[in-house]
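Troubleshooting: if your tokenizer reports a length mismatch, compare against these two reference records.
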Amino acid sequence: MLLQMFKSKIHRVKVTEANLNYVGSITIDEDLMEAANLLEGEKVQIVNNNNGERIETYVIRGERGSGIICLNGAAARRAEVGDIVIIISYAWLDAEEAKTFKPVAVFPDDNNRLV
């Protein structure tokens, strides 16, 4: 049996851009991606603390050190610049692996930078 488990998250980052005229996805600062063990193209869930929206999309690598968190395409309608979001990834693990797996949680500062 496989279980879908919490793999990693970037907790409480600020949306810096919303680009409706883009194909889709979320652009994330490469520093934050690496710290949260996220890969470009990986599926993520985005939880908007300001309005309660929950959406799924995929990750695009943003400029390292920029602090960028940009919702693109239709996702841009689910958040406004300045909203606080949590970006969560999950992984499929077998029951034994799930018992010992340690997820990663990243807690950036108010400027979306690692502390």
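Reference record two:
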Amino acid sequence: MIPIRNKKKTLQVTVEEMRNFAFAYVEKYAPSKQQLKTYLLKKYMKLSSSDVRKKRRQ
């Protein structure tokens, strides 16, 4: 069976991913609220920019 590579992520998957990133970051460091927001924003931007690149290649 061939896996579907370009399956669009649902909002629920994205929320779960961000939650996992947040928990991992809080466990490793002791960030302030603003530091956590900045970290998650950067993660989101990185993930969304890679999705845009994948769409352009097709």
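Descriptive notes for reference record two:
- The mean pLDDT is 81.
- DSSP finds two helices and no strands in the chain.
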